[in-house]
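Anyone else keep sequences and structure tokens together like this?

Example one:
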Amino acid sequence: MVFNWFRRQFNDQQEKKEEQKSQSSASPEEVEATEEEETTASEPTPVEATKEEETTANEPTPVEATEEEETTTSEPTPTGTPAWLQQSGGLEKLKESAIDDTPEPEPVTETPTSEETVTTQDEETTWSAQVLANQGRTPEEISEEEISWLKQLRRGLGKTRRNFLNQLKATVGKGPLNEEAVMEIEALLLQADVGIEATDYIVETLQAKMREEALPLESAIAYLKEIVREILERPFQEKNTPITFAPEQDKLNIWLITGVNGAGKTTTIGKLAHLGQKSDYTCLIAAADTFRAAAVEQVKAWGDRANTEVVANPGKNTDPAAVVYDAISKAQSKGTELLLVDTAGRLQNKKNLMEELGKIRKVIDKKAPDANIESLLVIDASLGQNGLRQAEAFTEVARLSGVVLTKLDGSSKGGVALAISKQLNLPIRFIGAGEGIEDLRPFSSYEFAEALLSE
């Protein structure tokens, strides 16, 4: 049976989460037990370890052996040291100069060893399994793909997380949260492009909580996670739209993919097509970006990778709306469930291109009035507030219903997700954290908050 990523359940109600944390406590233990068995299997046996220790103890490294020989030859016992050498201190001076002139050893500790790499991977696996278990998943329900994806997401938000947590620890220490620490949090949030409105809300909520009780660092971070989830989930509640975002089966779903050039729009379409195929939907792509050179060839290449047919007009500078019309006709005749429409990348100040986007929407409304229509804006997370301004302009013309946040692989701008949710009241539907075809998944506010704020 195909694993349906689209219909994977995310973000249970908060009350359910708390119950599941206690009820599913056995699940994480089973996962951890499995990991401990794997770790035990990979670690050397006590006999082997003893042999290695004896070998290490009895066989000095070449450097240590050389140093021992030099010590033996150049440092005789104090009773045998000539008086002139003791008085002049020449040996000590030679030692000092030799140490000073010797280049510093390469920082071997900065390059992870194989053991450290395995340890890091084990920690990431344990963290991923715990996050899934906290959402009510049992070990039998957890797939390797989910574990791999959460690792990728955590790494993608790593820069933002480390900057935030390290500076917060330096400010707060081990004591309770105070006003100075809250001001530091405000600065850190703004640096991460959380935006003024979301930052103000977080700071005010923290201050209100502080009036009720003292918040140690761990409790403060846990409470911050709750606030982050609340902000990210509010657009779903206010728009009365389900958090689980999936095409309706046995019906035509048309997703209009918009955004500026360079945001990852065409790449996102290829990844969505791949995700749809893996989730057992019939998919089709409309290459309606007819203005940019090689755009049609690019989307065709992604269509080949995703094993998805692409509808395109062979001519140059053809009418994008005509391509969409042809694609809808083909989708209707073939019983396609998901039609992904690639549109021209445009800047929000290009009036003629924005009007063309409106024309495409009119064709969709007229040609497929019964279809489920979604308009998704692709935003490059590394753009920060510039991406937010793009979203504001597209909202008016494209009647946006959601956002796809891309390029969260190493960006320090992960906080823009909160700005989008708070200022534009738009739900984030998908999130990308890598260049591979597998590196795009449905958005989960719980997983995002954990990846953003967990150590």
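And example two:
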Amino acid sequence: MPSFRLHPHPSTSSSSDHHTHLHRQHTSTDADIAVGAGTSTLEIAEEELDHDRQSESVSVRTRWKDIMSDNSAVINTFIAGGLAGAASRTVVSPLERLKIILQVQASSASHVSSGQAYGGVWESLTRMWKNEGWRGFMKGNGINVVRILPYSALQFTSYGAFKSVLATWSGEEVLSTPLRLTAGAGAGIVAVAATYPLDLVRARLSVATSGMAIKSTSGGFTAEDAKLGMVGMTKKVYRTEGGIRGLYRGCWATAVGVAPYVSLNFYIYESLKSMILPSSLSPTTSEPELILRKLSCGALAGATSLIFTHPFDVLRRKLQVAGLASMSPQHNGAVDVVKWIVRTEGFWKGMYRGLVPNLIKVTPSIAVSFYTFETVRDLLAALGEE
């Protein structure tokens, strides 16, 4: 049987190569399409991600604006309260320092005869200026401003918050006198509790640099202590007087004294404002007269409140320097301090020590405080509406 050899047909081979070429072309094209599709999908995903990020950013900004808008009154009150406190205390810084010195200095004849004790207001201010100059007037004001910023801000803000809570609780649109006094007392306690260590350190610095308390070697101030700043004095009190307990020495007595003072301050101010700045006041009233009326409301409120609460302020200062043997004997609490003051100096002379410089200080201080608060608050509200 003859054998047969099969030879591929030329056309068949060519067709096969063409098919392979086409297959490769298709494969290449499919790959390009796949890569293109993948790239397109990635770009779309990136665009969507950017869009989501932008949307999220816009959403966050919107939520933040809503929060700021909803709480604008509280925020404005907080800022205005802080600036009001800083302005008011800076204005009367020399009198503030003198008040503390007069409240805590010893009253024995030896101190007076030696010329160590401070005397009258103007005489003492003159002495302070001659000895220390402008720095003497402003001594302790830095820490006072640091303390008063949050103190005043919390006081004004807390007062508004307490009024709101009490109005909701009582159902009264216009709070009664007891509830308004309660709101003021609560505001005073909150502010004191939050800032008391700074107040104690400020009192120590004022006394340490006054030239009266640098001879003690038994736990009082020394010449080196007079050079301490805010941080140094805080460390000294914390290290030598029981840590946090030392920094809060006399806090409860301060709260007891501040609560009625702040309470009366707000109550009397609001009452006087309704009389001195009534809604029926003529719109043609000049700006200087309006300013004078506003300042008068604050001045009268501060002076009246102080007369009732000054003994608590004296007690607070005595407790704050109770650990200084050069300034006063050791005491076992507020009651012991009061007994000692009344026994050695009498109630009126002892418990109202430093009242005159305190009145001179408080009158312009509270006037500036309320005026600054309302001015800044109204300005911030106006800016927020634009």
